[in-house]
Amino acid sequence: MSGIRLDKVFKRFGTTEVIKGIDLEIEDGEFIVLVGPSGCGKSTLLNLVAGLETLSSGTIRIGDRVVNDIPPRDRDIAMVFQSYALYPTKTVRDNITFGMVTRRVPRAEQDAAVDEVSSLLHIDKLLERKPGQLSGGQRQRVAMGRALVRKPDVFLFDEPLSNLDAKLRIEMRTEIKKLHQRLGKTIVYVTHDQIEAMTLATRIAVMDNGHIRQFGDPETIYEHPVDLFVAGFMGSPP
Ligand code: ADP
Ligand code: MG
Q: Model-level pTM greater than 0.90?
């Protein structure tokens, strides 16, 4: 079981306070979308959950563990970035299994895992190619495959579709939604795209300037925004 809970989370870079006291409780299996304008602190918040940044103060729990002092690799999470972050000189197969190789997972188990995720993500014909021989959408599928083979309880996505063209974005959005329904894992997904938020989320957290302005299900956020900022950002009817 892996919900996520943030209590009074603050993050400063030098003297600049970027996350200003966030409390957030995410249930196991939810699909939470963090939305908000560029620079409001979405990536920073996700990086704090991932352990890629350290808290200035507050507590983060994943499942029943306080993870403040637990390094990223021991947090039972996998992260997918906008930039894919694939190894350019390795094949798709080796990109997907990289983490398993370093953990000395037996070869047969690696092959089975690659078979499973590559058919799930429709990249089974691309396994011997290098990232440079793939389209943007295919690269993002490989990045997702690499996250999936780790079988974490929690997935963190930071604007995974923003480098894709509109058609692919919609296609991948549908795929990600299906994956969530199928796997039932907890997902925290960052985007600045309101439509993406509305279609994917079980609950949306609208962020502004280091705060969460509103946290609720998509219909409530859209139809009953708590203030003009949320209304304006979500394009709610007047
Ligand atoms: P978002 O993902 O919502 O666009 P970020 O979390 O990337 O926003 O950034 C929030 C703010 O924190 C921005 O003003 C950004 O410049 C600042 N920031 C992010 N990372 C660092 C860092 N490593 N050092 C200093 N400032 C940072
Ligand atoms: Mg960001």
A: yes
